[in-house]
Amino acid sequence: MTQAQTTLPGLRCWDPATLKAEWEAGRVWLVDVREPAEYAGERIPGAVCHPLSKLNPAEIKCPEDKVLVLYCQSGNRSYRAAQQLLAAGCEQVTHLQGGILAWKDAGYPVERNPKAPISLFRQVQIVAGSLVLLGTILGATVSPWFLLLSGFVGAGLVFAGVTNTCALGMLLAKLPYNQRVGQTWQS
């Protein structure tokens, strides 16, 4: 996390131990801002899903006796969600520093659903790898112009890495099977 993230007025950053203590005391309203497919696969118990891609600050109604805590995979999306909520007039927003990865690294429980779709990251790998392979095979056997497909996918992956945004991932997240959130959970 950068220094700029920790100095945003109205934003508090909690580590997993602080969140767990407050969570066990029943003082937390936990919001997962990852995409529904990610939430469906694994989440911190008791969290509700409000994906950053569809975040409407007016829909975030934290009970008055609770602290609103946002989390995502690593802390980047929850920071951006906190920025949106603060800009919309929330006075105080808290997010989990390091996201669910830090939570799991600390050894705290998560709920998992083995019937959830595979992760978006793996879906992107499968689709991008298939397109590169297809472009290479067609480029070697049909026409060298098909190599442009492999080059285009490679450029897209570089752009995704540099900007920390993934258009392919955002497209895949919109598929119906990635929108399921009503799941049967297990610890």
What does this protein structure show overall?
With 187 residues, the protein is of the alpha/beta class. Helix content is 45%, strand content 13%. The chain is built from 8 helices and 7 strands, in the order αβαβαβββαβαβααα. It has helices at residues 3-6, 16-24, 36-41, 76-87, 99-105, 120-141, 147-163, 167-173, and strands spanning 11-14, 28-32, 42-43, 48-49, 67-71, 93-96, 111-112. It has a 5-stranded parallel sheet with strand order 1-6-5-2-4. A two-stranded antiparallel sheet has the order 3-7. Helix 6 packs antiparallel against helix 7 (147-163) and helix 6 packs across helix 8 (167-173). The chain is elongated and about 65 Å long. The model is unreliable at 1-5 and 183-187 (pLDDT under 50).
Key structural traits:
187 residues, alpha/beta, two-stranded antiparallel sheet, 7 strands, elongated, disordered N terminus
N/C terminus separation: 29 Å
Major β-sheet profile: 5 strands, parallel
SSE series: HEHEHEEEHEHEHHH
Please give the order of strands in the largest beta sheet.
1-6-5-2-4
What is the average per-residue confidence, as pLDDT, rounded to a whole number? 87
The low-confidence runs, each spanning 5 or more residues with pLDDT under 50, are 1-5, 183-187
Question: What general outline do the C-alpha atoms trace?
Answer: elongated
Number of helices: 8
How many strands in all? 7
